[in-house]
Design a protein that fits this description.
Keywords: Phosphoprotein. By secondary structure, the protein is an alpha/beta fold. The chain folds into 2 domains: 119 residues, Response regulator (Rossmann fold, 3-Layer(aba) Sandwich); 158 residues, Rossmann fold, CATH 3.40.50.10140. The protein is built from 11 helices and 11 strands. The strands form 2 sheets. Strands 6, 7, 8, 9, 10 and 11 form a 6-stranded parallel sheet that branches. Strands 2-1-3-4-5 form a 5-stranded parallel sheet, sandwiched between helices. β3, α3 and β4 form a beta-alpha-beta unit. The radius of gyration is 21 Å and the shape is elongated. The chain starts with 5 loop residues before the first strand and ends in a 7-residue tail after the last helix.
């Protein structure tokens, strides 16, 4: 079993540690921390070492407020790191507080079910990617889909020209709302679609709410090729899309290619190979940057 994905588990009870290690240790690398303070130190030393944090709100070594403050601290200092809160039976108000402070999910310890907990871990450890593209760029979109599929829990491939036809608009909107990451392939054909602004009306609200991270991919165009209405859209939504003037792969992968279609594809393919690991690192970030 691969243990490349790591969980920081804030838990001081040795028996519980052994139980969790037995249930999940073959699939994940688990680092146990007995206190909130030691967890903060571990995160300061290497926040990228962990893909998920599990916080037991009621430990012998710390109070309820310590656990909630730790969740608040993680949400503030490591906003892309998902946190799952755990509490004892009958403490639903504490779970509500944990969610308000930034917890992604929660469990009641007395309802422990290894399969159910494991499914939720997977839910927060793997991205759900929505790729939007023009049919003229289908070959590259399918290539990107194939490359990403082993690393994602789901990849939705959406042809922007089919909206209102084969795929209902409500289904498309629901797909976007479920996605942790939205990857539009920005080409000349894509930007000419009437649906671009409508699609971004949905996804921009998602990113503003901290629900969906946008990673635009320009395909065969330069920044100057992006039409005025699209740059205006970015301005209107306060850097939500972060398209123009950013080549930082936290948000964008840029393909500066020649105009002939076969050259565009060959260049994009070459750059995808070169930047794929960086794209995967970008996909590990679960929430949009704070502006």
């Amino acid at each position: 079993m691969s243990t490349s994905r790591s969980i920081l588990w804030v838990e001081d009870d040795v028996d519980t540690q052994m139980e969790m290690q037995k249930a999940f240790g073959e699939k994940y690398k688990i680092v146990f921390s007995p206190t909130s303070r030691s967890a903060e130190i571990l995160l300061l030393e290497g926040p990228s070492n962990y893909d998920l944090v599990v916080v037991d709100l009621f430990l012998e070594s710390m109070s309820r407020d310590d656990g909630l403050n730790l969740i608040k601290y993680i949400s503030r200092t490591h906003p892309v790191l998902p946190v799952i809160a755990v509490t004892g039976e009958g403490r639903h108000e504490d779970l509500l507080s944990a969610h308000r402070l930034g917890a992604s999910h929660s469990f009641i310890k007395t309802d422990f079910d290894g399969e159910r907990w494991g499914n939720e871990f997977e839910n927060y450890l793997k991205p759900y990617v929505f790729i939007s593209y023009s049919s003229k760029n289908r070959a590259f979109a399918e290539l990107l889909e194939n490359r990403l599929t082993p690393h994602c829990r789901k990849v939705w491939l959406d042809n922007i020209e089919l909206k209102g036809g084969a795929v209902p608009i409500r289904e498309i909107a629901e797909g976007i709302r479920k996605a942790t990451h939205f990857l539009p392939i920005l080409s000349e054909a894509y930007l000419q679609s009437d649906w671009v602004e409508k699609e971004y009306d949905i996804v921009s609200r998602q990113e503003i709410s901290g629900l969906t991270r946008v990673i635009p991919i320009t395909y065969g165009i330069h920044e100057a090729d992006v039409p005025n209405y699209f740059t205006q859209l970015r301005i209107d939504f306060g850097k939500v899309l972060n398209l123009i003037g950013h080549v930082d792969l936290h948000h964008a992968v840029f393909h500066k290619s020649a105009r002939p279609m076969h050259e565009i594809f060959d260049t994009a393919l070459q750059e995808l190979d070169q930047q794929f690991e960086r794209l995967l690192r970008a996909l590990r970030k679960r929430k949009p940057e704070k502006y």
